[in-house]
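the two lines:
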Amino acid sequence: MSTPLLELRGVHTHIGAYHILHGVDLAVPEGEVTMLLGRNGAGKTTTLRTVMGLWRASQGQVRFRGQALERAATPDIAAAGIAYVPENMGIFTDLTVKENLVLAARSARHEGELDAARLRWIFGLFPALQKFWLYPAGKLSGGQKQMLAVARAICEPRALLLIDEPSKGLAPAIVQNLVTAFRELKAQKTTILLVEQNVMMAKALGDRVAVMDDGRVVHTGPMAALADDAALQQRLLGLSLGAAA
Amino acid sequence: MNTVVAPTPGAAAAIPKARFDWIPVGLLVAVMLLALPAVGSGSSWLTLTVAGLAMGFIIFIIASGLTLVFGLMDVLNFGHGLFIAIGAFMATTVMGGMATFADTGVLQALLAIFCAMLVAMSVAGALGLAFERVIVRPVYGLHLKQILITMGGMIVGEELIKVVWGPLQIALPLPEPLRGAFIIGEAAIEKYRVLASVIGAVVFGLLAWTLARTKIGLLIRAGVQDREMVESLGYRIQRLFVGVFVAGSALAGLGGVMWGLYQQAVSPQIGAQVNVLIFIVIIIGGLGSTLGCFIGALLVGLMANYTGFLAPKVALFSNIALMVAILVWRPQGLYPVTNR
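prediction for all of em together
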């Protein structure tokens, strides 16, 4: 494997008195979708937040394109080319869809400075956003909010997308829409680190997989290999991907 | 290439329109209309209404900075009154020095007031910068400590004001050309209240425009809801914090000038006296909401004037009663800010 775009080595994270990550080692190759799987409380969200600098790594290294991030401030990490879609989507509900996207496009001061071609591409992925362009984001449905959250992450070119459980709480039809959108991102060789509990989505999108348990990465490898190994699935995740899908 | 991509004209009809919540505005109008039969006389009603709106505009100028500071920074700044007091005392110094000039004509009087405002805003803003750095920054996220240390900061500030300007109340008379009233029919509309209303409306307009039409405004509105996400999008919220704190302090300084001229006297305790009123206003409006603060300030101003005329004893607690009634109706205030 070539030099990974993002690499974590022995990362520990404490939140207050709690020791959440116990030495995470993880490599995210460029141009691939890496699934981060694991049971609830395994440390997946903490890993993403640590990469983003929202929680500080108390020990270990976070490297992005070889550059150390573990002491960098969150805005600098974002400026380096990492976009983050949190589990709660982080939508600014009092702002319109348009305003959410203008804010996400750091180079645009107003709507007129948004990249029109990219916006058309986003509208192609998520037509609802065009329909509700001037609507307060708080009034959107859960699925539409998730589309907006992803659109915000891609409204300017980013080297890496960190996406935390985008399918959580969404109807299967909406999840399918998201899968279609992520497939298109994947086809364009967008590098994604995707935390997901939805195994259908994991199987459909993942090139590689890392499984976490108790604050550590306990398995890494091709997603297809895990999908084909029922015993490994049972041991790592306590379920069968085939059965669940 | 960079053209606006909006929904196509054919689809425009299908676009759901976001509905503005007019109910609090309706409440404001209803209060004014209900007061008319209660007051009885149209001219008295007009006088009271203009007085109430002018008072509301001044309260809004003072409180708008505080609601932004709380909304964006989650800081309970009980020291906000200090900036009001500083503004008012700077007005006594500037207006005192320009008194002879200000009495020579309306334009000169306005010029003197604007000079006082400029100086007050500059000094209050600079003080706000130091206050944020020294007093507020170490207690981000710690509400109890914020209350204690900012109140302490205000007490220290009050004592320093006594050192500079003395402990006694200082007169802040209006320049001669701005005294008196316009007579409309049988109603007397004080000139200064018209001026205060115009300045308040301009400040509200500028603030509303900045928040709605500029990227800084977008960042402030977004930061009020979710600071972490704003940082995740690549913006340094700390700089925004400092900017908003300084702007809020400067607005309080401006409000101090307006309030001092409204009362025509300034005492070192002026900030503490107004503090209660502005906290009532920002709670009524919805913590962090500028529009809510605006409507809340106008309601408080109107209620104070109407009840002062109709039932002076009720006026003593009318603001508290108004706050209780509104919170029973809308526990998060008139225009609640979501995600808080």
